[in-house]
Every structure is written in structure tokens, then in C-alpha cells.
Amino acid sequence: MSQDQQITTASGIPVDDNQNSISAGPRGPLLLQDFHLIEKLQHFNRERIPERVVHAKGSGAYGTFTVTHDISHLTKARLFAAIGKKTDTFARFSTVGGERGSADTERDPRGFALRFYTEEGNWDLVGNNTPMFFIKDPIKFPDFIHTQKRCPRSNLKSPSMMFDFWSRAPESLHQVTMLFSDRGTPDGYRHMDGFGSHTYSLINAAGERVYVKWHFKTRQGIKNLSAADAARIAGEDPDYAQRDLFGAIERGDFPQWEVRLQVASEQQLEDWEARTGWNPFDLTKVWPHRDFPLHPVGIFELNRNPDNYHAEVEQVAFSPANAVPGMGYSPDKMLQGRLFAYHDAQLYRVGTNHQHLPVNAPRCPFHNQQRDGAMAVNNGGAAQNYATVNATGSAPRGMGHGEPELALRGGAGRFDGRGMEDDYTQAGNLFRLLTAQEKLNLCANLAGPLSQVSDEILQRQLAHFDKADSAYGDGVRAALNMK
Known about the structure:
By secondary structure, the protein is of the alpha+beta class. It is built from 13 helices and ten strands. The protein has helices at about 35-45, 140-150, 160-170, 175-180, 225-235, 240-250, 265-275, 310-315, 335-350, 425-435, 435-450, 455-470, 470-480; strands at about 60-65, 85-95, 110-120, 120-130, 195, 200-205, 210-220, 255-265, 295-305, 325-330.
């Protein structure tokens, strides 16, 4: 508001004095009847909503997605209906493990969350700047995140907690290798790629399903920080990535990403699994580009900064469950867990009616029978608050949005693939892709925290490096000796 506008209470009642409390005489005490004072202090005490358990510190911006290539044969989703079609978007980038006051340059995966405000509702693609993850079963997610946070006794970050978990979970090695490479400290948010990471599905007008992986390739070029520069900037400018993104958009240097897609039929994935032994729905694995090449789809651009950080960036509430007609899920266990966990987290963190907030509200009409609760801004008016029952039956087909039925295999139970699945080949492939200098950097970055763990944990972790590539283990040992 401008300086000359009338101050009011939140209910719009004019405030005649915003400088002095109502007191019993010039020196007080204060009177409870000063509602403006009470309201002002009450709101101040409640200015902070609970921070996200993960992805607490982030930056966001609005933009557009423009279709450049026709994929209407793969999906009936209307946002892809025609080349040149534009859809409004919102993006939030974040560090995963740190608190809201942490440094932007910490070694950490980066969240890469996108919202598309389509005419059929919001589509949320909630990914990272890495195509894989540390675990493959969501039942281990709380345990894993606890190891990345603070020790309950010392309240300090603990390399022992981290590597005790990783060394007992060999499936984490692929992502650990990515995290401790140069890509673990990207140079801001504009110079990193993004990935949907999970396997999703697309459904066309004929009801045919294909499985896909989403990729966002930065048009600014990949740029990473050395470990030394990342540590220096953390002290000099802990908001480095926020400043870089906000400043670029303010001066009209709009960042862009090329949207690409890996596509496979169910039969292709079955054949690939039979040949490689890799589960295509395992989040700790990637689909190699030589087997599943990238296909261009469009351009994602960020071109407008939010007007209010809290209202838009802090309160934006993503969920991978938000999929529009023409899109679907997959048997990826981690995705299945996130379909529940994200929306549940938003209900706790922001509120029951968080979808009513402008940044979360769809840009198309919406109708349901949800009523009441906190922040019921759009409470349905006089409309009926229940759905009538069709006494003659509704003849359901498929799972939703016209998605065909998903074939299930085997009986229900708990299944542990440890010792029976290949957790090393892809991690070794990633190591072998690195240049000689990048390999030295990776080993040096690992040697820092590994020099602080017990010998038992160290030997367990070194054994994983050896199985991925003997040069990997030798390189870490050499870096530890130097340290």
C-alpha cells in the first residue's frame, strides 16, 4: 500500500493512530480494548506458517510453457493440443535438507517443482535437479530425512548419521555419486537441469497409455560451483540463488528450459527389464538415453517475479497427485507414497482450504462438495454440499480421467529386493562419465564427511564404491589419505 492510504484493521475498519497504543494515562498500563494493538500483535505472532519439513528454503517465479512439438498422439491433455499453445506456470526451486535460513549453495539436491495452470485444472510436476533419488520405498523416507537433518542430541548435522544410512542402503549410491559430484552445488537455479525423476504416464484420446520421464534442459548452460566457492558464497551471500533468479527476471533476462520427454510402451519396458535386470519404475535408476532417447516438447520460461514472497512462494502447495486428463501415474513406489504425502503435508502446513489461495487456485472453474474449515474463502455458497447417488449405477471404466486399467502382478505383501537387485552398475556408469578433474572433485568432496565417520561406516561405504568401479573406491581412499 502507498504511504497516503488509510490504515485499517483486517476487517477494513479505519485506524486513527498506528503509532501509539491506548493506555491508561501517558505512561500506561495499556488497555485491552485497543483492538488494533491486539490484532497487530496476534498476527505478528502467527506470521510464520510451519516451514516445510524438506525443501524449506526456496525461490519462485511465474512463467509460461509453450508447445513446440506435437505430442497429441501420446496424450489428450489440452495444454499440448497445438504447437504454439501457451500455458501459465509457476516454479519453485529449493534446497532439500536445510532450514529456511540455510545457505543456497549447500551441497544438496535442488527441488524443481512446476505448476501448469491448465484449462482442465492444475498439473503439478514436483521433481528435483537429479533424475534419480536415494531410496526406492517411501517407508524409508522419514528415516532418510532424519539422517539429513540434525542429530537429536547435539543438534548438529552429522556425517555419521548420513553415511550410516547410505552405507546400509546400497541403492543410494547412484544419487550419492551425483550429490558429491560438481552437480551437488549448482551455480544458482538458472544453470541446472530439472527432472520429473519418477516414471509417469500419458494417455491419448484412444485410451492408450505410454510411460514417460520428464526432462528440463537449461538453455543457460550447466554451471556448477566448486566446493570452495560454494562454502565461500555461503558465508558472503547465503541468498545467492534467490538473488540471482530474482535479479535476472527483474532485468528481463528470462531463464528458459527445453522440455523433453522419454517415452516407452509397457512392452518396451518389459523387454528392457528382461535385458538389463533393472526395474523401470525404480526411482534409484535412470532410463539411459541410448535406450530411450529424448523427444522435444516445448519451452518453459520464467518471466515474472512474485509480488509477495510469503503469499506466493511460501504458501504455494504442490502435489504430484495433481494430474489433468491425459496424464497418469505409474507403479513407482516412491511416486505412490508422494501422491499421499504431499497433499497431507499441505493440509497441515498451510491449511484445509489451501487450494483457495490465489497461487494454488486453478485458473479454470472448479466444483466439489468440500465445505467449511479454516480459510474457507470459496465455500460453495448455497450450492448442494453432497453428491447425489446414481441409483442405476455409474458404470466406472478404468481408474480416472479415462486412464485404462493397470495390470497388477503377484500377491500383496512386503518385498525386499536388497541383495537381489543391481545397485552398482548405474552408479559406476555415472562415475565413468565424469572427466578426470570431476572424478577428483567427487572423491575430495566425499573425503570431507567420510573423514568424520567411524571406521565401520567408512569400510561399508568404501565397499560400495569398489563395487561400482574399483577406480571409484581407490580415488576416495587417495583423497582420504591426502586429507
